[in-house]
Fold these 2 entries.
Entry 1:
Amino acid sequence: MIEKIEKLKAEVAALQAHTADEVEALRIKYLSKKGALNELMADFRNVPAELKKEVGMKLNELKTLAQDRINELRDNVAVEATAGDDLDLTRTPYPIPLGTRHPLTIVKNEIVDIFSRLGFILAEGPEVEDDWHVYSSMNFADDHPARDMQDTFFVESHPDIILRSHTSSVQARVMERNQPPIRVICPGRVYRNEAISARAHCFFHQVEGLYIDKNVSFTDLKQVLLLFAQEMFGPDTKIRLRPSYFPFTEPSAEMDISCNICGGEGCSFCKHTGWVEILGCGMVDPAVLEANGIDSKEYTGYAFGMGIERITNLKYQVKDLRMFSENDTRFLDEFVSAN
Ligand code: PHE
């Protein structure tokens, strides 16, 4: 009896069918009243009592197997039938909606691209940073207001661990591990504790550049920035540098470009001045070089930093900063062609 059951099991497992009729024929052969399984059930009465348990279990297994296999064959045949019915190989495919790159990514890539053509290599670093890399190594005095709770997000219960408020921390990390010549471009997200509005957000994006070598001068800085502005905003773009202050650069400047929205004529975007500010820059303060293990008597360097949102606004005139982080696909779809 057990032998018979095992034989049937093997037979059932190997069953094949290609049409619904064939499946039905198999069902009748194995599972109907007069089918092979019921015949075995009849024999079961003659099994000696001590074997009933074992044989009964095997019979049940066989029954489940047969039912499953026949159901499976029925499903397969059904799928093949529907696929066959309306398979139209000449039909045009469904349009696949492709995503777009985020406008900030598009502009970041463009900025990085321009500087990599000038020999800058990409450097990235952590967004959760320590005070040293964000502030102390950048020559911020202990009581500098930027360290204030107003600007800096602290990781709870760790006064030393913060969300970086500028990407200068990446420069510190590059300097501590490398000796000049250093020429890096550092894009990334930064955080500042600001109330969210159309003009401010608690996170935004920056790209900073750093070049350190022998005899690097302010002229080099100015020429590189002019080239950048013209590559980014067109060959007629003019730049001007205004003296400014940053703890990590000396001398420091802010750079304006001729307003690319009105071409310098004056409009509401440039507040009718014809100029818009796009970045901060300067010669790396010798104190920063020393703090990061670079000999300031042998080397000089320049650094610059810009907000990607600002550059994007100039290119695409996005009026509300919040749109960059809302993920509204109607907004993002506007950038399909810029991808
Ligand atoms: N780190 C400055 C900021 O976040 C930008 C900057 C970088 C300015 C390098 C000068 C030189 O505002």
Note: The chain has a mean pLDDT of 90.
Entry 2:
Amino acid sequence: MNSPARLKPSRTVDEITGSRRLRRMRKADWSRRLVQENRLTVDDLIWPIFLIDGENRREEVAAMPGVFRLSVDLAVKEAERAAKLGIPALATFPNVDLGLRDRTGSEILNPDNLINRATRAIKAAVPEIGIVTDAALDPFTSHGHDGILDNGIIVNDETVDQVAAAAVLQAAAGSDIIAPSDMMDGRIGAIRDALDAAGFQDVAIMSYATKFASAFYGPYREAIGTQGLLKGDKKTYYIDHANSDEAVRETEQDLAEGADMIMVKPGLPYLDIVRRLKDEFRVPTFAYQVSGEYAMIEAASANGWLDGEKAMLESLLAFKRAGCDGILTYFAPRVAEMLRS
Ligand code: PBG
């Protein structure tokens, strides 16, 4: 019964494949390069950086080895390095002094707050690099939520007014792209109106169109100091991570309100969303490889469980394959260095 003769397939491989052999083009490095469909270049990168007050300060984020909170003077130095590496743009996230945080996040309306000071300083020193700023309230509120908290509810419309006003201040400081991450309804249209009314027609909007309620933001909250403040979760305003049709509706709405570019966040666990949105809307599409994704690769690499550099490059190329035009990633300077050499 179990003789080798009985186990031998009745057809030859050529009969099975019809002589089509996909391994032919995989046989050598030159042929693999020749048929490679997607490529990662430095032009695909947006580098998120964390800011703190003070001078010559550089604090490592514990859950993100190799990522630092930088004072504005050092952020300018990193911006210079990024520009030399050819990285197109930086995205800045402030760790605001605890004493400046309140229920409504009012510090976001200070024209000289940390984020706006950093934008001015970077633009003065490195005008050729793009600056992306987040108009969300979470770094500025005493409760770590992205909106104004009123009797246990994140109130939508008041938050939108404040976010739109903050966007104008960020544009005035020199921000090139406003990227609101708060997921309030109507924020894109309100920001567009406010920017246009203030004469900032050329400032673009990258909508965090599909921001999912996610555990992968953990290390970011340590980085900007909302970890100990945040009570509850963000499920009343971020998208349920079980949903995909809702992500399409949210994106449709944001584009109708005037978004120039869209973003999917988190990244790697949501590549199905990236592909769906790219196919559906054909607009500039980005993904945010978030703090938890960075931390996972770094932790496994530090333990010797995988090759960190290879995992980094593979994860970033996966974004391109899924349809991304670019990626926000904490790996940006490392990848840029590697792609250069
Ligand atoms: C909130 C915001 C988050 C991130 C950036 N801005 C999520 C959150 O704290 O809920 C996450 C970025 C990351 O994890 O790298 N507006």
Note: The chain has one domain: 39-340.
